[in-house]
Structures are given as structure tokens and as C-alpha cells.
Amino acid sequence: MVTDMDMQSPIETVVIQKVRPDGTPAASADAIGIVRFLSVTKLYGGGASQVVALRGVSFGLVAGSFTAVMGPSGSGKSTLLHCAAGLDRPTSGSVYLAGVDLGGLNENALSRLRRERVGFVFQSFNLVPSLSAADNITLPLRLGRRKLDKRWLGEVVGRVGLTERVRHKPGELSGGQQQRVAIARALVARPDVIFADEPTGALDTRTGRDILDLLREAVDALDQTVVMVTHDPVAASQADAVVFLADGAVVDTLASPTAERVAERMTNLES
Q: Is 80 exceeded by the pLDDT of residue 117?
């Protein structure tokens, strides 16, 4: 059983943001809060079988940043992502997305917020097999009864390199092309945050590198905010900062990461 003492959160909220090459912050403190966790705990089950997935987690992300989330298996990475995106509710504590307290929303309002303000990129692509690439990309807009900006759609499709493939169905596309469709789908609605769960895990090295470049471009050229769960130090090195989890808690952060420094931190966590 978990006690109140076990659930105490850090005294200070960890702030993750983009850093310029000279080491100075790329955004003011006023920009903090696109995603905020305040003493978030998530429990599954009860009694002797109770599992603590998140343990008093507090952090804030600056808009326009690229954050990687890493940790050993079972450290709470996916649970953190799901709580941040409103796919799961914390047991205690508060999660804010673009200033909105997710805990104050009913299921209908939460679904609407996800459609309008959140983009998702998952390892499994989650495309509708019977729809063309173009229809998969615009599906969230149609479900939300939102007007399609055809100029923006054309720009997004061009940026992900699918201009000549938009009429093809998922079964006619390679794995990398399907993931590009998923990224375009996330971008076309202009969400506040894109959440990516192991987006390169099912791809070969070269294609995975291309997908990471697209996510990086979404941040740098389109001013998106990306939060990515990954186990790969090379993938994490594309981010502005890395958040490390262990046993459901934030135990370290790393700004301006390199693959070597990330691998070293992960080795220390797993030893």
C-alpha cells in the first residue's frame, strides 16, 4: 500500500524548454504551461497488487519545444503521455493543457479538447485501412466538423513528402509513408501539442531518422510543441531536452542532449 509520504511531490516544478545555441532560454517564463503536471500520481489496482505508475510528478513544458521522455521499462513513460494527452486521468494531482485543467472536464469536453488541441503519433500508425492518405489526414477535422484549410493541407502534405501519394490507401504505402500520414494528420489540425509514443519503433533506421527530422521541423519551422516517448538515445538527441523517469517519478533532466549523454544517463538509471 502507498502512503501519503510516498506521494509527496518535488518542492519545485521542473521546467523544460528550448535552449538557444548560446545556452540561453528561447522563451520567457511566461510561456511555461503548454503542458503542466502538478503533483500528479496515478495508481492502478489496490491493496497488495496496487501499482504506482506515476508518483507525485511535477513539471512544465514551454510552448514550441521538443521534449523526449525516457526511462526503464515500467517507469511510467506511457502513463505520463496518456495523462498529459487526456487519454487517462490521474488518481491525484492536476494536469493542464494550454491552461485548461483536464480534471475539470467531463468525457465529452475532454474528447472535444483532444480533437481540437492535441495531435497523436503512435508506433502503430492507427490509420483507417479503407481511407486514402488524404482522407486519413483530414479525418480528425471531419470528426470535429471543422473547416479544412486546403492551402495548409497542401503545405503539410508537401512537408511530409506525400504529395504524390495522397490518393493511396495505407496498404499501398510503406511503413515510413504511413507514419508520415500519421504526422500529417497530427499537424493539419494545428494542435497545441503533438504527443508521439515510440513513433520510430516500428521503422528501419533510415526511415526513423526521416520521421525524427519531420518532428524536429514541426517544432522549428511550424512552432509546434512535441512530447515524445522513446527508448532510443539517438531519437532523444533530436529533442531540446530529455525528461528521465524511474519508478514513476522524474529523476533527472538533460538539456541539449546528445545520444552519448542520453545513453550514459539511461545506463545509470538501469544499473
A: yes
